[in-house]
Structure formats: C-alpha cells, structure tokens
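New to this. Explain the following:
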Amino acid sequence: MMIRKNVLGVALATFSLYGILHQVTSRASAYPTLPEPVIVAKTGNDKPIGQMTAPPDDSRPGMTPSSVVFAGGCFWGVQSIFQHVRGVTATRAGYDGGARDTAQYERVSEGDTGHAESVEVEYDPTLVSFGTLMRIFFTVALDPTQIDQQFPDTGPQYRSVIFTRTAQQARVAEAYIAQLDAAHIFAQPIATHVQPDKAFSGAEREHQNFAARYPHNIYIETYDAPRLDALRASFPASWRTEPVLALSTAPGSLRMSNDSGRK
C-alpha cells in the first residue's frame, strides 16, 4: 500500500491538532438539542459562536438522486465524512478542475495540473438536502478559510472547491458562502470557490474507501478520525454508523460495493 503523506509532518502535528479537534467535538456535543435548520460553526480559535440558518432545502417528493463534487484537502478524509452521512447513496474519490489526461495521482500530486483532490457525492434529496451537505462540509470536513492547504497538505491540489452540477446548486452555494462571510462565522473570509464540474475523474482503486480500509493508518487516526467524532456529535440526526462504501467503475458513474474494505 502506498503511503502518500509526510509521516514526520504528521507526527509533529498530531498532539496539537488532535487537541484542537477534540475541543471542537466536546463543545459540539454540548448542543445536541439545537433546533433545525441551524449551523454551529467555529472561529479560528475553535469556539462555537452561534447559530446560522441553513441553506434552502432542495428536497421534494419523488426527486431522483442528485450529485455534487466537494474538494477540501485530502480526499481520504472528505470521502470518509460523506460516507457516514445519512441519505448519501454513493461516493467516489477523484480529481476535478483539470484535464482528464492528467488525472492520475502522481501527476496531480505535482500541483500543476489544475486538479483538486475531490469527492463525488451522490445523495437522495428526499433524505438529505444539498444545504445539509454544505453545512457538514463547512462545519467538520475542512477549515474553509485555508488557501491551497488543509492540515499538513499544501498545494493547489488541496484547495477548497464546491464543483456544482446544476445552476441551482451554484446559486445556493454562492449565496450560502456570502451569508456565512457576512455574518463573520469564521475568523477569516471563506476561501472555498464555487465552480461548475466539467471533468471529474475517479481516483485509482487504492484511494477509494481508504479511511474505512485503513482506520489505523497514522494519517487517518490523526486527521480524519477526530472529524468523524465531530460529525457524530454535531449532526446526530445525519450520522450513520456504517459507511456507505463505493468503488469506481467508468468515469462519471458510481457503483456500490458490498466489500467492507477492511484488512
């Protein structure tokens, strides 16, 4: 198995980052009865600072599954977050924002292909809205104020983007980011961009379901497990214990997998 992260950097950051995320999780768990729809966000020093009305609910009876692409740093952790969200029906780690012929891990890691490590999320709008997915993304999946960086990973391939697939998604995402910035929910302006998805490409098989298959990998234990704790505490109604596992087939499609992926 290829180990893609800087182990020394992970070891140096382990104690401080885990402590910060543990504080966020502990504080979030103190608000289990918040009315819906709200968002509890954190400032730069990780203190919850109030409630924010969530984006509009796009669920209507009879709607077919929808999909959107989120980029927020290493795709291992972002995929793991959405795999544990009730109403998500499939996910796929991959690359977006660049040309298909350079959408390979080694090339993307050089940081000059235009790609961002991304996760394609298919969801049932009658069970979870696009607005809820964005609330989860901004609250626990990443620090949306970081530019070309998430945790120890740096470079444009780790930038924060919502790659939308409908005009409605784009309007809602842009309006929500403006709303959060206007309310100064975060200590710094949100750096997440909203762009149309044009060329999402699935990542190599070894990167799919990585956190579920290697839960004791040092990177997963350090940076991703605490975020799952925060998801469970902050969004108990959206939490699902068993992740929805999916493996890639042809580009642009998702296939569910019955393989637990665990070794």
